[in-house]
From TrEMBL:
GO terms for molecular function: diphosphate hydrolysis-driven proton transmembrane transporter activity; inorganic diphosphate phosphatase activity. This is H(+)-exporting diphosphatase. It comes from Digitaria exilis. It holds the Pfam family H_PPase. It is found in: Endomembrane system. The keyword Glycosyltransferase does not apply. The lineage of its organism: Eukaryota, Viridiplantae, Streptophyta, Embryophyta, Tracheophyta. It comes from the Eukaryota.
């Protein structure tokens, strides 16, 4: 074939490019394949029947639940509108479509394999949970309500599996839209920067709305189903305030899948990225996403499985964990204050996130295209446009949050309490906005920190690394101060709300912190939209480069890509802040559950006790060891990619002259198999460590007459792991994002531009930061929340 082309005077560069498929069979999940085979009319009738059944269950529970179901249903219709709008856009010339197809095949193939592995591990863990709950002792509340050990065990396992399934679907939705939107953004960039931005935002918005909707709908459906099935609040049955504790398994299942999705996807995307950059940019001097680079398809596939699928599961888990922990604390507080109808305090988180769907939808629609689509305006700042949309979302979130608190948190016992809690929500919203601003300041090359980092590249690779590490360390200060002020302010507002227990002691402090967490996540839909925008823009730039579009088109996608790096960094900062607050809530719920099981007071953890101090050390060590193994996994896999890319350049010298075609599939196969293999060790460490520590110190405690020692050591481990994990995640995410954008800044022409010595040093910094910001950092804030949920679920084995 090649000889014929050369005889006809046509080179590989001029020949239409085709990319071999890396998928062996259909990657669409079985559930979706079965639904596609059903007659449309039959499917509509079945959907109406299911919806009617759901509304009936909701109506049997509370009108509030019906409201939540209706908002979620309307949001799903809105997401379908966004899908139709995005898919109606053209895919550009054939060479763009061919590249996009190769990316889609690789992403869907890896997704199927990865989630097949995760599902097997989830089933094994489900049997472990079942065994623990079948042989544990029941709490007095469960005995009084007639909820036996077997029923409790099956409920927890069912919740765990449902949470894992929904988290997996959230990841699939994130990946599904990104691999179809990337080529449409590339095509739109040939006409208008604003149109390309709008497509990327709406594609990300589809994923965000579905993820938030599933989290809210899943918890609401589980809650209402258990309410009806167990006959809650009827004579001799469970009290409604105790019901949220049965939902903990749902949060654990979501955390479990999110952790392995983040680990596997992060290892995949960064190993391919590092391998492609080190050999392509540094050694061969070719541009990023050049079609001559054998690892370029693997790199573009990684953007989808690491940044889209994993982040979808991550944000799903964040919202689910926050909702459940707030429901638990709301029910506990209402019970202590003897509030007649505690349903408002329990269901408040569901209503807040229902309004989140509404305000985020408005924010997404506020970003519009230009009237004259023929105008290309790269001068227009995409970050400023997205910030305007975020500002619209925040203003609406403040209004709807105030309405929600007055509607659900008003009580005759403390008529002004709702206002205090509304202020708690305002604290959370301000915290979220501040986190976004801080992350933007430290990672956007329009600001001084990244420009100073880029300047350090002019004196060599070493000074670039030193500057990046110091920037990451410095960036932990402001977020920690903000979190500290938010926790104390919200706690104080809750304590002074006027709600007191039977003894007259204020009881609203912890719930105030929970409300602040809800406020922080009340714009989660729009924040996730900004996050999904990043990898879609990155993929679009790769498709433009590989299909060799004009430089003006690449300039537009480069601007969008740089903004995408900033939005990804801000989302990670947002996620870390919410993880800190959610972990604090889950920690409080864990202490309450231990006290309930043991029938002993458990209100504080004394780190002056040697065993408890050791538990804290082990928690801090866990963070560093987990991060080390995650980064090491990227390094090992990247070495394999580097060796493979070098081999192809040596054995196929015609690649550089476009006379031979790289074997893209080989690099895809290497990173796919290695990432699945390498994700097991850090993931297993995260799951086994708290259980092993709790059981060992439980045995030690019983032998020394300290019945709560195991639970206290695990509590200390969780506290220290949360603190160390927040700091480490902030450092890794910010340093990695800053290194990446310092490189982007030089590529705009500063300090010598592409190919200069400064650029080579910046590429080295970027490759060092890759596993920081996209593997270890994002995995850490998932780990923090998973530790909190696993200790809550496994509390009985520590006693």
């Amino acid at each position: 074939m090649m000889e014929e082309d050369m005889e006809n005077g046509r080179s590989y560069q001029e020949r239409p490019r085709t990319f071999s498929t890396v998928r062996s069979k259909s990657s669409i999940p079985l559930v979706f394949r079965l639904l596609m085979r059903i007659n449309p009319r039959t499917l509509i009738i079945l959907s109406l029947l299911v919806f009617t059944g759901v509304l009936y269950v909701g109506a049997s529970t509370s009108p509030i639940v019906v409201f939540v179901f209706c908002i979620c249903t309307l949001s799903l219709f809105f997401s379908l509108y966004l899908t139709k709008w995005v898919l109606a856009k053209d895919e550009g010339p054939p060479e763009m479509s061919e590249i996009s197809d190769a990316i889609r095949d690789g992403a869907e193939g890896f997704f199927r394999t990865q989630y097949g592995t995760i599902s097997k591990m989830a089933c094994i863990l489900a049997f472990v949970i079942l065994g623990i709950y079948l042989f544990r002792t029941a709490t007095p509340q469960q005995e009084a309500s007639g909820l036996g050990r077997a029923t409790s065990a099956y409920i927890t396992v069912a919740s765990f599996l449902l949470g894992a399934l929904c988290s997996g679907i959230a990841g699939f939705v994130g990946m599904w839209v990104s691999v179809r939107a990337n080529v449409r953004v590339s095509s739109a960039a040939r006409r208008s920067a604003r149109e390309a931005l709008q497509i990327a935002v709406r594609a990300g918005g589809f994923s965000a709305i579905v993820v938030v909707c599933m989290a809210v709908f899943g918890v609401a459906l589980l809650y209402s189903t258990f309410y009806v099935w167990l006959g809650v609040d009827s004579p001799g049955s469970m009290k409604v305030a105790d019901l949220p504790l049965l939902l903990v398994g749902y949060g654990f299942g979501a955390s479990f899948v999110a952790l392995f999705a983040q680990l596997g996807g992060g290892i995949y995307t960064k190993a391919a990225d590092v391998g492609a950059d080190l050999v392509g940019k540094v050694e061969q001097g070719i541009p990023e996403d050049d079609p001559r680079n054998p690892a370029v398809i693997a790199d573009l596939v990684g953007d989808n499985v690491g940044d889209c699928a994993a982040r979808g599961a991550d944000l799903f888990e964040s919202i689910a964990a926050e909702i459940i922990s707030a429901m638990i604390l709301g029910g506990t507080m209402a019970q202590r204050c003897k509030i007649e109808d505690p349903s408002g305090f329990i269901l408040f988180p569901l209503v807040v996130h229902s309004f989140d769907l509404v305000v985020s939808s408005v924010g997404i629609l506020s970003i519009r295209g230009t009237r004259d689509s023929s105008l290309i305006s790269p001068i227009e700042d995409p970050m400023a446009i997205m910030q305007k949309g975020y500002s619209v979302t925040i203003v609406l979130a403040v209004l709807t949050f105030g309405v929600s608190t007055r509607w659900l948190l008003y009580t005759e016992q403390a008529p002004s309490a709702w206002l205090n809690f509304a202020l708690c929500g305002l604290v959370g919203i301000i915290t979220a906005y501040t986190f976004v601003w801080i992350s933007k300041y430290y990672t956007d090359y329009k600001h001084e920190p990244v420009r100073l980092l880029a300047l350090s590249s002019s004196t060599g690779h070493g000074t670039n690394i030193i500057a990046g590490v110091s920037l990451g360390m410095e960036s932990t200060a402001l977020p920690v101060l903000v979190i500290s002020v938010a926790i104390i302010s919200a706690y104080w507002l809750g304590q002074t709300s006027g709600l007191v227990d039977e003894s007259g002691n204020p009881t609203g402090g912890l719930f105030g912190t929970a409300v602040a967490t809800m406020g922080m996540l009340s714009t989660a839909g729009y924040v996730l939209t900004m996050d999904m925008f990043g990898p879609i823009a990155d993929n679009a730039g790769g498709i433009v480069e590989m299909s060799q579009q004009p430089e003006s088109v690449r300039e537009i996608t480069d601007v969008l890509d740089a903004v995408g790096n900033t939005t990804k960094a801000t989302t990670k900062g947002f996620a870390i802040g919410s993880a800190a607050l959610a972990s604090f809530l889950l920690f409080s719920a864990y202490m309450d559950e231990v006290a309930s099981f043991a029938q002993l007071p458990f209100k504080e953890v004394d780190i002056a006790v040697p065993e408890i101090f050791v538990g804290g050390l082990l928690g801090s060590m866990l963070i560093f060891l987990f991060s080390a193994w995650a980064c090491s996994a990227v390094g090992k896999t990247a070495q394999e990619v580097v060796n493979e890319v070098r081999r192809q350049f040596i054995e196929r010298p015609g690649i550089m002259d476009y006379k031979e075609k790289p074997d893209y599939g080989r690099c895809v196969a290497i990173v796919a198999s290695a990432s699945l293999r390498e994700m097991i060790r850090p993931g297993a460490l995260a799951i086994i460590s708290p259980m092993a520590v709790g059981v060992i110190f439980r045995i030690l405690g019983h032998s020394t007459g300290q019945p709560l020692l195991g639970a206290k050591v695990v509590a200390s481990m969780l506290m220290f792991a949360t603190v160390a994990g927040i700091l480490m995640a902030l450092f890794l995410n910010t340093a990695g994002g800053a290194w990446d954008n310092a490189k982007k800044y030089i590529e705009t022409g500063a300090l010598g531009g592409k190919g200069s010595e400064s650029h080579k040093a910046a590429v080295t910094g970027d490759t060092v930061g890759d596993p920081f910001k996209d593997t270890a950092g994002p995995s850490l804030h998932v780990l923090i929340k998973m530790l909190a949920t696993i200790t809550l679920v496994m509390a009985p084995i520590f006693l």
